[in-house]
Amino acid sequence: MRIKILVDSTADIRKDWLEKYDADLVPLKVIWPDGTSEDDSRDPKDLMKFYSKLKISPEIPKTSQPTVFEFLQKYRSAEQSGYEGVIVITLSSKMSGTLNSATTAAKESKIPIEVWDTKLASSVNALVVRRVRELASEGKTLKQIVDELQRERDTKKLQAFFYVSDFNYLVKGGRVSKFQGFLGTMFKIKVGIWINYDGEMVPFDKSRGKSRAYDLLVEKAGSEIPFGSLVRLSMIYADAENEAMELLEKLKEKYDVVDSSFHMTGKVITTHVGLGMCGFGVEQLA
To answer: SS3 of 113, please?
Structure first.
């Protein structure tokens, strides 16, 4: 069965991965206070321009999900290109209505569509795209692929951990609650965030320095995925590449890392987590 993969832009997947794994991006949008909007992007130069603009913006922009029509266009394009089915990978439905748009559009498609709520976000979903292509290459059906993905998520094999350098972005964006004890961002406290099994972003610890921030992420990862496990890692960062590189070295001390990749946060994720974010997605293999 010839399967097309669609993934929303919050996966922060690299452009070369889209080509390698025969996946198409469905972009979310950023809406600036003056009413202008722009699509999420995977072009590094465009992302750097966005980071610079965000730094000086007096207000945080808003974001919007893809429409039903935009998904339907993607489905029709896949059909016209000879694909026999489509798998759609979306960020957590607790963070966006993207899943609803994709599911509604699927009812109008002439070819089979499976939409999967990862209950995750950012670069761990790039790992999911690669996993989908692996399973499709084994000859599995759409349903079998989604069932296997769900099994791997249920058994903690897919996880996401990161820290933010300005907790206000998440609070103002309404993506987390203002937990008592996680305030004081004027002191540049780094707050550790874990995406739980309900698909919600949960603050779990804080640090005043990046070295301690690395440690708290590694410790939290170890509580979910045993140290020594065979893993793939997708490092994610927002204008903090050196921190992502240093964090990877810390993770290599605890895990058998068979593959690692680096991904820049897209416009939508950056809008919600702020610049200085750093973390990783993990796929446990054994």
So the answer is: strand
Tokens read off for 174: 């309404």
Q: Show the domains of the chain with their CATH numbers.
A: 3-29+64-154 (3.40.50.10170), 158-284 (3.30.1180.10)
Chunked mean pLDDT (size 10), the chain, 286 residues: 97 97 98 96 96 93 97 98 98 97 98 98 98 98 98 96 85 59 59 94 90 97 98 97 98 98 98 95 97
Give which of 7, 4, 12 is closest to 267, Cα–Cα. Answer: 12
Q: Burial, 81: exposed, middle or buried (Cβ in 10 Å; 0-12, 13-18, 19+)? A: exposed
Spatial separation of the C-alpha atoms in residues 115 and 106, rounded to whole Å: 8
Single-letter residue type at 176: V
Q: Are 21 and 5 in contact (CB under 8 A)?
A: yes
